[in-house]
Design brief:
Domain Alpha-D-phosphohexomutase C-terminal: 494-535
Radius of gyration: 23 Å
Strand content: 15-25%
GO molecular function, one term: phosphopentomutase activity
Shape: globular
Family: Belongs to the phosphohexose mutase family.
Protein name: phosphoglucomutase (alpha-D-glucose-1,6-bisphosphate-dependent)
Pfam families: PGM_PMM_I (PF02878), PGM_PMM_II (PF02879), PGM_PMM_III (PF02880), PGM_PMM_IV (PF00408)
Length: 558
């Protein structure tokens, strides 16, 4: 792409958003900033679009959103899908604007847009797609990324993120669409008057909450005290309502993080995985001493928790919460007589190996899929296609995503918050905290320490450098890592060593005695993630092993 020429074209044509014009006028036409903004189009990956807000083809703005929506319209037409699309948005900067712009493009193409009238969680979008029988869904969110990002997730008619094949076809349609001359747009108010833009009623949301409540396993958690933070995102309404429904009355919301705010003023990275994001919640918990601290990310599909331990509070990892919930669900379903025949749980290739041991204890088949909750959702669809959707028990991924029902096809922090509270209340009646419960699981199933390190590759050459690193590891795989011999290797990209029937993915796995390293480029950000796992006779030994693996892995990217 001729970056300077494209910059000039945008300066002339991007007049629908004054913020963009002002931004463009402040740039040096010959500077690196113009090159970074225009050297490529923002890629439409398996999760849709995600990028930094701003002017340019490599940025999130109304033109990249319109263009993506036009491509989605053309895919719907070509695939014969139902000509309706559900839309939701979170609290991020311009999320509401992007949602309206998407609705305008849909309406102009004769496609009905069902639009939530206010910000709502991502799982509520997945629900709405199935509720209205839509051909697709759009959720405007960048999940847990910093405030400078926004994104555009696309869902298929099953309520799950679109398949790899569908994403490729949408990308092909986008490639042939000019952002200025190739996109149809309708007047928003005229679209509403014509019935092509319809606001989603509160009944849809209430029915979503009914479906979540229907997954309750305890019948109540009245004695539980909770501190909750929505991290200035979209979770407050639904999480508050579901906790009230199961009897949790003692809920204190972190005041600085209660109201929606896309600038996320209290934390640079609004992710419940990060201690900094939970800092205010932890401080309030130290003061109020609740049984549980809950946090949800801006689009409320991820849930994190902290529990009392000693004089303070311990943040549970995503893997720990996953095995705690898996164990709890199995225990309670057996106690209640509701455990299905041939139950199935699903997790990912990068999630803890403890899940295998817990599942085996209860006679549950554990299926492992590629990273991304869409692949867990696909397993639900396969079970339903066989006429046995009831076999699905639970799905989780290490990145704080959980789902215990078939009501949606994505991770659901509303569902997870309810289950976590019920689980904490159940253990409380036995005189145990969730920290006590986790220690018991470690003692039974072995001490497994899991971690993840990220290595960023910013700038115009970032993607090329990432590809070079992966090629180098394929061409010259390490024989040892941190002084430990590599005894097994799996290349999910070429299929080498893959046992499960999985799609090809650019992921490398190295196994050592009692340890594992998995290397995976992010599908949405210019970074490579390294997943570390060590099993030992004590947590201290497992942590020391992981530290050594992390230091060795850093050498791959030196």
């Amino acid at each position: 792409m001729d970056t300077k020429a494209e910059y000039g074209r945008w300066l002339e044509r991007a007049v629908d958003d004054p913020d963009l014009i002002e931004e463009l006028r402040g740039l040096d036409p010959d500077g690196e900033e113009v090159s970074d903004r225009f050297y490529r189009d923002l890629a439409f990956g398996t999760g849709g679009l995600r990028g930094v807000l701003g002017a340019g083809t490599n940025r999130m703005n109304i033109y990249t959103v319109r263009r993506a929506t036009q491509g989605l319209c053309e895919w719907l037409a070509a695939s014969g899908g139902t000509r309706s699309v559900a839309i939701a948005h979170d609290s991020r900067i311009k999320s509401d604007l992007f949602a309206r712009e998407a609705a305008r493009v849909l309406a102009a193409n004769g496609i009905t847009a069902y639009l939530y009238p206010r910000l709502e969680p991502t799982p509520a979008l997945s629900w709405a797609v199935r509720y209205f029988g839509c051909g697709a869904g759009i959720c405007v969110t960048a999940s847990h990324n910093p405030a400078k990002y926004n994104g555009y997730k696309v869902y298929g008619p099953d309520g799950g993120q679109i398949t790899l094949e569908a994403a490729a076809r949408v990308q092909s349609a986008i490639d042939g669409t000019d952002p200025f001359d190739g996109v149809k747009t309708a007047d928003f108010d005229e679209g509403v008057a014509a019935g092509l833009i319809r606001y989603i009623s509160d009944k849809c949301l209430d029915d979503f909450l009914d479906a979540v409540q229907g997954l309750s396993l305890s019948g109540g958690a009245e004695d539980l005290s909770v501190v909750y933070t929505p991290l200035n995102g979209s979770g407050l309404e639904c999480v508050s309502k579901i906790l009230s429904r199961i009897g949790v009355k003692d809920v204190t919301v972190v005041p600085e993080q209660e109201e929606p705010d896309g600038h996320f003023p209290t934390c640079p990275y609004p992710n419940p995985e990060e201690r900094e994001a939970m800092r205010l919640g932890l401080a309030l918990s130290e003061k109020l001493r609740p049984d549980l601290l809950l946090g949800t990310d801006p689009d409320c599909d991820r849930m994190g928790a902290a529990v009392p331990e000693g004089d303070g509070y311990r943040l549970l990892t995503g893997n720990e919460m996953g095995v705690l919930l898996l164990d709890y669900i199995c225990r309670r379903r057996i106690e209640l007589g509701s455990m299905p025949e041939n139950p199935v749980a699903v997790t990912t290739i990068v999630s803890t190996d403890m899940a295998d041991s817990v599942a085996a204890e209860y006679g549950v088949e554990l299926r492992r899929v590629l990273t991304g909750f869409k692949f867990i959702g696909e397993q639900i669809g396969l079970l339903e296609a066989e006429g046995h959707g009831e076999r699905f028990l639970f799905g989780f991924e290490e990145s704080y995503g959980y789902l215990s029902g078939t009501h949606v096809r994505d991770k659901d922090a509303v569902n997870a918050s309810m289950l976590c509270c019920e689980m904490a209340a159940w253990y409380k009646k036995q005189g145990m905290t969730l920290a006590d419960a986790m220690r018991a699981l470690y003692e039974k199933h072995g001490y497994t320490c899991c971690g993840v390190k990220s290595f960023a590759f910013e700038g115009e050459g970032g993607m090329e450098r990432m590809a070079a690193v992966m090629d180098s590891l394929r061409d010259a795989p390490p024989a040892e890592i941190a002084g430990r011999a590599v005894t097994g290797r799996t290349d999910y990209g070429t299929g080498e060593g893959v046992i499960l029937p999985l799609p090809r993915s650019n992921v490398l796995e190295y196994r050592m005695d009692g340890a594992k390293v998995i290397i995976r480029p992010s599908g949405t950000e210019p970074k490579i993630k390294v997943y570390l796992s060590s099993r030992a006779g004590s947590m201290a030994a497992a942590e020391a092993s992981n530290a050594a693996l992390a230091e060795a892995a850093a050498g791959f990217f030196a």
